[in-house]
Amino acid sequence: MEDIEAIALLQDPVRRRLYEYVAARDHEIGRNEAAEAAGVGRTLAAFHLDKLVAAGLLETASRRLTGRSGPGAGRPAKLYRRSGAERGVSLPARDYRTAAGLLAEAAETAGLDDELRAAARRRGRALRAEPPPAGMEEVAALLAERGYEPRPDEDGTLRMRNCPFHALSERFPPLVCGMNLALLEGLLEDVPDVGVRMDPRPGHCCTVAVPSKNNQD
Questions:
Q1: Domain holding 23: CATH number?
Q2: Taking the C-alpha atoms of 89, 181, 168 and 129 in order, what is their torsion angle to the nearest 10 degrees?
Q3: Distance between CA 141 and CA 139 in Å, rounded?
Q4: Tens of pLDDT along 128-141?
Q5: Which of 62, 68, 70, 88 could form a disulfide with 76 if both were Cys (CB 3.0 to 4.6 A apart)?
Q6: What CA–CA distance (Å, rounded) separates 200 from 178?
């Protein structure tokens, strides 16, 4: 019921705009910025933001935005970022996460890494777009549809702010990250001048998509 109630909060259009704005940022957001982005007053934005925090959809931090400290520096500002918690609803109740965890545990114990990567690569090929994406912008749009939330670096590398397999990758990193890489290899196999490789960083997916000239191990 908690997941249903949390997701139901997003039915309010102002609350949904605030959540989407904060969730899409790579940094923590203050109330003034969020209010301006949503087109509402600061007091109303604060009310809705704190509702989202109470529901576990956002998290908070405190920091002085001036960068100063000591007397006269002002009070720390309340900042918001997307929560790392996952929310999902299945009616009637289904427990696919436990099943996925058991399957991953069995695959890891049996040493089925190669077989899993081969299956993931086949699935990626089956999910390929027709016609294939042309250029990194279309690749980014395709990855966004798959839930990866890609963001470009200055050199054109697409780093993923979200891993669709996050819960499993934390428990079985080599197995699940290898599966993820193989899935993307299959998905982008027929895209010219684009490759994928491992490049794990905190708060990001373990894989990146790169222009082929940067696709170096």
A1: 1.10.10.10
A2: 10
A3: 5
A4: 988 999 889 999 99
A5: 62
A6: 12
Instruction: State both tokens at 136.
Output: 């990194």
Note whether 35 and 133 are same-domain residues: no
Does 112 lie in the same domain as 72? no
Residues 6+ apart with CB under 8 A from 127: 146, 186, 187
Q: Encode burial over 106-116: b for 16+ CB neighbours within 10 A, e otherwise.
A: ebbeeebeeeb
What does the alpha-carbon distance between residue 72 and residue 132 come to, in Å, rounded to a whole number?
A: 57
Give the E-state strand segments of the chain in sequence order.
Answer: 29-30, 58-63, 77-82, 150-152, 158-160, 194-198, 207-211
Number of domains in the chain: 2
Q: What is the pTM of this model?
A: 0.77
- The Cα–Cα gap between 137 and 143 comes to 10
DSSP 11: G
Distance CA 110, CA 169 (A): 17
**Are 76 and 130 in the same domain?**
no
Does 66 share its domain with 124? no
Residue 190 has a CB neighbour count (10 Å cut-off) of 14
